[in-house]
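Operator note (shift B, R.M.): manual run for Anti-anti-sigma factor requested after the automated queue skipped it. Running by hand, logging everything below so the morning shift can see what happened. Input copied straight from the record, untouched. If output looks odd, do not overwrite the archive copy; leave it for review.
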Amino acid sequence: MSTDDELRAQLDDLLGADTDTDSVLAAFERAPSLLAVCEGPDLVITALNDAARQVYGDRVGQPVAEALQAPDTERIRDWTEQTFRTGRPVVDQVWRVAAVEGDDVDGWLSFSMVPSRAGDGTVRGVVTQAVDVTERELFRIRAEQQVQDLQHRLDLARDNLVDLHDALLPEGLPLAPGVELAARYLLAEDGARAGGDWFDAIALPDGRIVVVVGDVVGHGVRATVVMGELRTLFEERVRPDGDLVAALELLERRAGRVPQARAATVCAALIDPEAGTLTYCTAGHPPPLVVSAAGGATYLPVTGSGALGSGLPFVLAEHRLAVDDIVLLYSDGLVERPGRSPGENTLDLARVAADAVRQEEPGGGERVVQRLARAAVEQLTASSGYDDDITVLAVRRVRLPEPLQMTVPAFPDTLRAVRQNLGDWLADLGVGQIDELALQHAVGELVSNSVEHAYEPERSRQEAIVSVTACLVPGGLVEIEVADRGTWRRPGPAGGRGRGLAMASGFTDDLHVTHDAHGTRAVLRQRPSTPVDLLKGTATAAVVTSAPMEMEHDGTIVRLRGTLDHRSADELRRRLSHATRGGTIGVVVDLGGVTHLGSAGVQVLYDEMIPGRDDGSGLTLVAPAGSPAQHVLELVRLPYASDHEVPPAT
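Run finished. Output pasted below as returned.
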């Protein structure tokens, strides 16, 4: 029996003897999709149309296992056998067809197999159909490539934003007499939304030091740029005289012209290490935490000043610091962690800070301020997670450092002693490794210069001496003097020896050399710093799901529930504007159901309150005593009522 006769018999069996099998056979043969029929437990190929023969070859009468032995057709064989074995269809399995000679691209077929059944329901074979999905697959490949390209651009933009953010923060903290400083900054999430936290420490020429932590509302490029602008303006104004109020008033004026700066919060402090005084202002920001040497932790009172743009005056408060007291400034990300109430968050921070101070000094030379900053970030984020940037700046009042004074014989073997003593003195100050290396090289060149060139060979060891004096002066400058009693010798010609002074000058910020009949005196100055831990990367702590914002509007009453943060800020602004009809009518906003009020939510409330308007329009905020919203509104000094009569929700 011929192949066509076998196929006609199958069609008669399947469709009935009265069916025009020739027409069906012709349609089968000319079908644009691949069609194949296999029968029996060996899955013998009993029918192939023209399209199928392009893939299977002319293999009618052969079992599938024998016909499809080539590596590139093994998957078709496996799908066919799976369908027969399980009795379940295999649908849309894509098979790649290698490009033939003269064609530029490969092709793709989508295979579907269905079992054919006998009259008793048992599987007797497999019918295969495959359609050309080359266009679909090419579209998918192009789409995936576009997604990859967009992801690459997004990653690059995110990295650039993080780099910009880091560049606008200080790379190090100054070394100032009478204080030790440490800072740690943790960027929220993985850097996709660089935030508005900023900090700085400015050593003043008179020995006092200014420290500040601020928080700009929002995330992204705009928040990063405004953050950098506020930090720069604050530093430039406070550096000459330490006037905190004048610096904050400058930021207030800027906030009046830059909407993104409105509702930004700042905590600034001026510390006089010698007198032991701390003068500070909390402009809508959480207050400083003071930890004693014994581990007692106390939050200082807020000063009553509002966030930038509130129009409230900047009020200062004072506190007396004992030696070894630590002042901790921090951003609200540390005390507004998800899943914890404001009271729990503040108690957590006080507990962790106290434990860090009480802890025995570990190996590795970690200072107590560094340990406190590290513990505050690591332990608190590990316990509850975090969803905002976190900044910690710790300042410890210490005794004024003793200067280094050495007088050594002008012999080569004394250079080792100079390096050892200078290294110990710099380490006690907390000088970073790069600055220490530069200073050691500079001093080594100056000492070597005196040893080699200052004295004649006949001078006695008692007369041929070099003195090294080092001190930390107000303003954060390390000043080191290397002096001898020898005879000045003019540097030799270029290319020869005598380049020590040039090398010493290159290692320092300033080098001044004088000489007279009594000897030579070289004074170098360097403004070293202690490094800052700028951290970024995906948070590893468990994610706490925040309740979504819900809003109920009933006439002139708006009830808010859930989380008001950067995720819901745009929706909150739109719906409040609708409720107040664009700020033309007054609305009472009940915040009693708010579980978290972030800085972005505060900015929306501030903008919608229309400060200064007395015609009854805008918002009246209601926050019950002890609620999360009341805690935040009290801190940022937004006016609110705690007992306003609000009808119960129906």
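Quick read of the result: The radius of gyration is 39 Å. Residues 404-531 form a domain with the Heat Shock Protein 90 fold (CATH 3.30.565.10).
Leaving this for review. - R.M.
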